[in-house]
């Protein structure tokens, strides 16, 4: 093969040495020089500058350059060599790196020219170069010489990319093809010039990319100008469109022998741009196979020409910025499973109890790790951003509830049995609203008095659990641990002997599910609670009691709800509550309760492996009364501290890296769960009927250290007037 001009190993365009500029070149620091910024528009065109800004510079990647040689003394290249010697494939000897032509030096500078040294710099400025000379001094190269050079590249440890800015108009023979197959079998990425004769398809070896044995590891490269239009000299994608990509190849500035620089044009200049991009990928993620690197470059290319892959631009313009970003859906490697969880499931809607401690752990970096894309590339991820604050306590929601059109029907039998039903009447908007009104059962309870002081108690909806403790006095005084078994139905029994009374029962979401099928409760989730309670009457006006409950949550942990990646399972809490109440006057009751809990048996299959030694508490004080200002009004003044974790840790198995073998490295961490402060909430709830068809509700809440976060304050107030027509 002739080196000049039929062998398209050269730029096939005039090289203009910048002698004057070269005389001014001095060794600079790593920061870009003004000349590098001004003259290197290719970085902006393929967006490699974004990759550099993110810290991706090709470090630890090695690119073999099979070309005319390399000027090893050039300021751009003298620190970039993987080997101080150059392999001369024409003599099969290792020699000092030199370049009597300039083409190889120019190509090498485009791939890995250093920064801060002059007027150009490489796409992968921290990559290393293996120089292999395949052209004789007379400008000729044989397929045997090319094969020798390719074998050397494939056999050199650390080489991942082979740049072939060369080609011929026909197949290069069995000797070269065998060497090419061996290089592919050795997991080398071959980046080859498409050729400069304006043809419909690439020349060889780029055209081998379409062969099945190429295994997607050969990238054919065409050239575009500064406007992303195919250069007039560049061959098109043709029959290699699926493995064809384009890059800038017109007026590209790079190193030239003798510490000079030159603008050169050709697919030979576009090819090392792609090789440099491949080196960025290899340097950042050495676990990638050659086929994966090629696939990433193809999938992330900017579409040019006809939509999709076409016969002119192939897959489109190299886009380094996109290539260095995740491809596909990010996933979370899990230490407990070979499967990965979707990154979108790394969420945890915390409860008031758990938010403060988990928030502090997240701010301290306890949940920083990596997620992986479709190519198992790791990307730094702070999973703590998925740990979200509890749903806000909106006064509007409470006002809406206060203003609901609820009708309570109560029957009390002579034996003391009591039945309560809460019914909501819904009237759709429109002229036919009255005709379309629907009545729905919201909650119900029944207490059957039996002989011997015994009783059976059933309840559904919001009345479930009101049989126990102080919940029947006011919802703000309900045991917060029982609220963890939300959406449950109640089945209980009790008996009374003189001043002593005993109660036992269960709250279970399954009981509510049966009712939900008969009524309109669409969301039936929660858990269960087994409860025993002992109360002692202090005369006619006072009561003290103690309650034990074993609470098991479903799809939540202390009220928090998580996606798969942050889910905790088998969460069980045992709690003891002491409560007391005393009637003050005829219509007012003072009440107090304090609860402590221990959450154990907590395991997870995601990032959170377990929660250990978790302790929590809550308390509430309240005055509840009737007929305070008007007849039949009702008020509740409460001071409470919501459920909070007082101590405990969580074990986190955090993925932190992917090894060169593609295996995930996990780091076991222990993060604290204890709240950093205690919330105190002062609340007032007042409701009064104004007439048979109107009512007034007033709500006020002042939260100090809201959600147990120091310094957080929340003040809300609202008034609802409701009238029926």
Automatic annotation (TrEMBL):
Residues 58-316 form the Peptidase S8/S53 domain. PROSITE patterns: SUBTILASE (PS51892), SUBTILASE_ASP (PS00136), SUBTILASE_HIS (PS00137), SUBTILASE_SER (PS00138). It holds the Pfam family Peptidase_S8. Gene3D superfamilies: Peptidase S8/S53 domain (3.40.50.200). InterPro entries: Peptidase_S8/S53_dom (IPR000209), Peptidase_S8/S53_dom_sf (IPR036852), Peptidase_S8_Asp-AS (IPR023827), Peptidase_S8_His-AS (IPR022398), Peptidase_S8_Ser-AS (IPR023828), Peptidase_S8_subtilisin-like (IPR050131), Peptidase_S8_subtilisin-rel (IPR015500). It comes from the Bacteria. Residues 1-22 form the signal peptide. The active site is at 67 (charge relay system), 103 (charge relay system), 268 (charge relay system). Keywords: Hydrolase, Protease, Serine protease, Signal. PANTHER family: CEREVISIN-RELATED, PEPTIDASE S8. Belongs to the peptidase S8 family. This is S8 family serine peptidase. It comes from Aromatoleum evansii.
């Amino acid at each position: 093969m002739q080196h000049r001009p039929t062998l398209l190993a050269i730029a096939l365009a005039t090289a203009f040495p910048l002698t004057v500029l070269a005389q001014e070149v001095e060794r600079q620091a790593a920061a870009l020089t003004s000349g590098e910024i001004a003259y290197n528009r290719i970085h902006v065109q393929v967006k490699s500058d974004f990759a550099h800004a993110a810290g991706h510079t090709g470090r630890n990647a090695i690119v073999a350059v099979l070309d005319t040689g390399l000027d090893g003394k050039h300021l751009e290249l003298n620190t970039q060599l993987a080997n101080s010697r150059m392999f001369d494939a024409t003599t099969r000897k290792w020699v000092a790196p030199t370049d009597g032509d300039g083409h190889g030096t120019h190509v090498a500078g485009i791939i890995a020219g250093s920064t801060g040294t002059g007027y150009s710099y490489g796409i992968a400025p921290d990559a290393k170069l293996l120089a292999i000379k395949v052209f004789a001094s007379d400008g000729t190269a044989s397929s045997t010489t090319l094969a020798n050079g390719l074998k050397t590249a494939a056999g050199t440890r650390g080489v991942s990319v082979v740049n072939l800015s060369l080609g011929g108009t026909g197949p290069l023979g069995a000797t070269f093809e065998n060497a090419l197959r061996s290089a592919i079998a050795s997991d080398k990425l071959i980046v080859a010039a498409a050729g400069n004769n304006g043809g419909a398809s690439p020349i060889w070896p780029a055209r081998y990319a379409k062969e099945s044995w190429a295994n997607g590891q050969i990238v054919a490269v065409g050239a575009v100008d500064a406007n992303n239009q195919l250069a007039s000299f560049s061959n098109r994608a043709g029959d290699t469109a699926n493995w064809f990509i384009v890059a800038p190849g017109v007026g590209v500035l790079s190193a030239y022998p003798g510490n000079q620089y030159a603008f050169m044009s050709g697919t030979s200049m576009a090819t090392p741009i792609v090789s440099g991009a491949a080196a960025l990928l290899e340097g950042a993620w050495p676990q990638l196979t050659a086929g994966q690197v090629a696939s990433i470059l193809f999938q992330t290319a900017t579409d040019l020409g006809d939509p999709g892959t076409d016969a002119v631009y192939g897959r489109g313009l190299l886009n380094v910025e996109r290539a260095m970003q995740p491809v596909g859906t990010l996933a979370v490697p899990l230490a407990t499973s070979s499967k990965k969880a979707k990154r979108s499931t790394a969420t945890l809607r915390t409860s008031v109890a758990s938010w403060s401690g988990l928030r502090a752990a997240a701010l301290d970096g306890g949940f920083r790790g990596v997620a992986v894309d479709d190519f198992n590339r790791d990307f730094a991820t702070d999973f703590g951003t998925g740990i979200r604050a509890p749903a806000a306590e909106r006064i509007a929601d409470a006002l809406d509830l206060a203003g609901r059109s609820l009708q309570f029907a109560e029957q009390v039998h002579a034996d003391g049995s009591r039945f309560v039903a809460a019914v909501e009447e819904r009237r759709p908007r429109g002229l036919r609203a009255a005709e379309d009104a629907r009545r729905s059962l919201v909650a119900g309870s029944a207490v059957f008095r039996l002989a011997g002081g015994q009783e059976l108690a059933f309840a559904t909806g919001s009345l479930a659990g009101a049989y126990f403790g102080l919940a029947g006095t006011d919802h703000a005084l309900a045991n917060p641990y029982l609220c963890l078994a939300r959406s449950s139905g109640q089945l209980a029994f009790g008996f009374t002997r003189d001043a002593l009374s005993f109660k036992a029962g269960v709250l279970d979401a399954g009981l509510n599910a049966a009712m939900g099928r008969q009524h309109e409760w669409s969301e039936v989730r929660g858990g269960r609670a087994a409860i025993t309670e002992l109360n002692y009457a202090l005369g006619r006006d006072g009561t003290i009691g103690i309650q034990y409950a074993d609470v098991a949550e479903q799809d939540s942990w202390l009220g928090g709800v998580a996606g798969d990646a942050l889910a905790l399972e088998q969460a069980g809490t045992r709690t003891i509550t002491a409560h007391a109440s005393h009637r003050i006057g005829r219509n007012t009751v003072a009440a107090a309760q304090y609860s402590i809990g221990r959450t154990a048996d907590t395991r997870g299959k995601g990032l959170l492996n377990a929660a250990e030694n978790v302790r929590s508490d809550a308390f509430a004080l309240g005055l509840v009364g009737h007929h305070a200002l008007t007849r039949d009004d009702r008020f509740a003044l409460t001071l409470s501290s919501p459920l909070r974790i007082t101590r405990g840790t969580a074990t986190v198995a955090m993925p932190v890296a992917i090894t060169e073998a593609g295996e995930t490295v996990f780091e076991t961490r222990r993060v604290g769960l204890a709240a950093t402060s205690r919330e105190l909430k002062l609340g007032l709830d007042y409701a009064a009927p104004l007439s048979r068809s109107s009512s007034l509700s007033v709500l006020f809440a002042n939260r100090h250290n809201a959600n147990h976060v120091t310094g957080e304050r929340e003040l809300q107030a609202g008034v609802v007037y409701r009238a029926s027509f």
